[in-house]
Write a structure and sequence with these properties.
Helix 2 runs parallel beside helix 3. This protein has a 6-stranded mixed β-sheet, with helices on both faces. It is 40% helix and 21% strand. The protein is built from 5 helices and 6 strands. The protein is α/β, with parallel strands linked by helices and 142 residues long. The protein has a single domain, classed as 3-Layer(aba) Sandwich (Rossmann fold), CATH 3.40.50.2300.
Length: 142
Protein backbone atom coordinates (compact mmCIF):
# COMPACT_ATOMS: atom_id res chain seq x y z
CA UNK A 1 0.00 0.00 0.00
CA UNK A 2 1.46 3.29 -1.03
CA UNK A 3 0.25 6.61 0.28
CA UNK A 4 1.58 9.41 -1.86
CA UNK A 5 2.26 13.01 -0.97
CA UNK A 6 2.15 15.96 -3.29
CA UNK A 7 3.57 19.45 -3.02
CA UNK A 8 0.52 20.79 -4.87
CA UNK A 9 -2.37 21.27 -2.44
CA UNK A 10 -4.20 23.27 -5.13
CA UNK A 11 -4.95 20.19 -7.25
CA UNK A 12 -8.43 20.04 -8.69
CA UNK A 13 -9.22 16.65 -7.15
CA UNK A 14 -7.70 13.80 -5.17
CA UNK A 15 -7.69 10.22 -6.38
CA UNK A 16 -7.03 6.72 -5.07
CA UNK A 17 -5.86 4.18 -7.66
CA UNK A 18 -6.53 0.50 -6.88
CA UNK A 19 -4.97 -2.06 -9.22
CA UNK A 20 -2.69 -5.02 -8.59
CA UNK A 21 -0.55 -4.03 -11.59
CA UNK A 22 2.13 -1.40 -10.91
CA UNK A 23 2.21 -0.64 -14.64
CA UNK A 24 -1.55 0.03 -14.67
CA UNK A 25 -1.34 2.21 -11.54
CA UNK A 26 1.43 4.32 -13.06
CA UNK A 27 -0.40 4.73 -16.37
CA UNK A 28 -3.63 5.91 -14.77
CA UNK A 29 -1.67 8.19 -12.43
CA UNK A 30 -0.32 9.99 -15.53
CA UNK A 31 -3.86 10.53 -16.81
CA UNK A 32 -5.02 11.88 -13.43
CA UNK A 33 -2.06 14.27 -13.28
CA UNK A 34 -2.64 15.49 -16.84
CA UNK A 35 -6.15 16.65 -15.96
CA UNK A 36 -5.11 18.42 -12.77
CA UNK A 37 -5.69 15.68 -10.22
CA UNK A 38 -3.44 14.30 -7.54
CA UNK A 39 -3.11 10.61 -6.75
CA UNK A 40 -2.96 10.49 -2.95
CA UNK A 41 -2.78 6.71 -2.62
CA UNK A 42 -2.20 3.48 -4.51
CA UNK A 43 -3.66 0.13 -3.46
CA UNK A 44 -2.41 -3.23 -4.74
CA UNK A 45 -5.50 -5.14 -3.59
CA UNK A 46 -9.08 -4.63 -2.50
CA UNK A 47 -8.39 -4.60 1.24
CA UNK A 48 -5.81 -1.85 0.81
CA UNK A 49 -8.28 0.11 -1.31
CA UNK A 50 -10.85 0.09 1.49
CA UNK A 51 -8.27 1.03 4.14
CA UNK A 52 -6.86 3.87 2.06
CA UNK A 53 -10.33 5.15 1.17
CA UNK A 54 -11.21 5.39 4.86
CA UNK A 55 -7.94 7.18 5.67
CA UNK A 56 -7.78 9.55 2.71
CA UNK A 57 -11.40 10.15 1.63
CA UNK A 58 -10.35 10.97 -1.94
CA UNK A 59 -12.68 12.68 -4.38
CA UNK A 60 -12.41 9.71 -6.74
CA UNK A 61 -11.40 6.04 -6.78
CA UNK A 62 -10.21 4.31 -9.95
CA UNK A 63 -10.57 0.59 -9.28
CA UNK A 64 -9.70 -2.58 -11.15
CA UNK A 65 -12.12 -5.49 -10.79
CA UNK A 66 -9.64 -8.36 -10.61
CA UNK A 67 -7.39 -7.94 -7.57
CA UNK A 68 -6.05 -10.25 -4.86
CA UNK A 69 -7.46 -10.53 -1.33
CA UNK A 70 -10.72 -8.78 -2.24
CA UNK A 71 -11.93 -8.07 -5.75
CA UNK A 72 -12.99 -4.66 -6.99
CA UNK A 73 -16.72 -5.38 -6.71
CA UNK A 74 -16.55 -6.35 -3.04
CA UNK A 75 -14.22 -3.43 -2.34
CA UNK A 76 -16.67 -1.11 -4.07
CA UNK A 77 -19.55 -2.49 -2.00
CA UNK A 78 -17.67 -1.92 1.23
CA UNK A 79 -16.66 1.61 0.25
CA UNK A 80 -20.25 2.48 -0.72
CA UNK A 81 -21.52 1.03 2.59
CA UNK A 82 -19.26 3.49 4.41
CA UNK A 83 -19.83 6.44 2.05
CA UNK A 84 -22.87 6.35 -0.23
CA UNK A 85 -21.52 9.42 -2.07
CA UNK A 86 -18.20 7.78 -2.97
CA UNK A 87 -17.26 8.24 -6.61
CA UNK A 88 -15.74 5.05 -7.97
CA UNK A 89 -14.88 4.39 -11.60
CA UNK A 90 -14.18 0.81 -12.63
CA UNK A 91 -11.15 0.33 -14.88
CA UNK A 92 -11.20 -3.22 -16.19
CA UNK A 93 -10.37 -5.54 -19.04
CA UNK A 94 -12.94 -6.00 -21.77
CA UNK A 95 -13.57 -9.60 -20.74
CA UNK A 96 -15.23 -8.53 -17.49
CA UNK A 97 -18.36 -6.97 -19.00
CA UNK A 98 -20.84 -8.69 -16.66
CA UNK A 99 -18.77 -7.83 -13.61
CA UNK A 100 -18.57 -4.18 -14.71
CA UNK A 101 -22.37 -3.99 -14.88
CA UNK A 102 -22.61 -5.59 -11.43
CA UNK A 103 -20.27 -2.88 -10.19
CA UNK A 104 -22.55 -0.21 -11.69
CA UNK A 105 -25.47 -1.81 -9.86
CA UNK A 106 -23.52 -1.64 -6.60
CA UNK A 107 -22.72 2.04 -6.98
CA UNK A 108 -19.83 2.57 -9.41
CA UNK A 109 -20.33 5.86 -11.24
CA UNK A 110 -18.83 4.80 -14.56
CA UNK A 111 -16.23 2.56 -16.18
CA UNK A 112 -13.67 2.38 -18.92
CA UNK A 113 -11.86 -0.63 -20.33
CA UNK A 114 -8.17 -1.49 -20.48
CA UNK A 115 -6.37 -0.76 -22.64
CA UNK A 116 -7.85 2.72 -22.66
CA UNK A 117 -7.32 5.88 -24.60
CA UNK A 118 -6.04 8.55 -22.19
CA UNK A 119 -8.34 11.20 -23.71
CA UNK A 120 -11.37 8.94 -23.24
CA UNK A 121 -10.35 8.12 -19.65
CA UNK A 122 -9.93 11.84 -18.96
CA UNK A 123 -13.40 12.53 -20.33
CA UNK A 124 -14.97 9.85 -18.09
CA UNK A 125 -13.11 11.09 -15.01
CA UNK A 126 -14.10 14.70 -15.67
CA UNK A 127 -17.70 13.69 -16.25
CA UNK A 128 -17.93 11.76 -12.97
CA UNK A 129 -16.28 14.56 -11.00
CA UNK A 130 -18.59 17.13 -12.52
CA UNK A 131 -21.78 15.51 -11.25
CA UNK A 132 -23.05 13.28 -8.48
CA UNK A 133 -26.37 12.36 -10.02
CA UNK A 134 -27.17 11.40 -13.57
CA UNK A 135 -24.33 8.92 -13.79
CA UNK A 136 -24.76 5.49 -15.30
CA UNK A 137 -27.73 3.73 -13.76
CA UNK A 138 -28.37 0.04 -13.27
CA UNK A 139 -31.55 -1.43 -14.65
CA UNK A 140 -32.42 -3.99 -12.00
CA UNK A 141 -35.28 -5.37 -14.11
CA UNK A 142 -32.97 -7.02 -16.65
Amino acid sequence: MEQLNSDDPESAFTCLVADDSLFARKNITKVVSQIGGRVVGEAKNGMEAIELYEQLRPDLVLMDITMPELDGIESLRKIIEKDKDARVIIVSSLGHREMVWRAICFGAKHFFSKPYDPDYASMIISSVLGKKEGDLQCDTNT
